[in-house]
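step=predict obj=Cortex morphogenetic protein CmpA n=38
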Amino acid sequence: MPAWFQSQIQKAFLEKNRHQIKLLNQCWFFYRKKHCSH
């Protein structure tokens, strides 16, 4: 997981920002699906 992504997620969790967390999770899911489905 990229460092910038981890910091974004930590920030979202600290702020208890559910919307942001959901968004980041979706981004991560699609990112992994795109890059790891060889």
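step=describe
Residues 9 and 21 are 6 Å apart (CA to CA).
step=end
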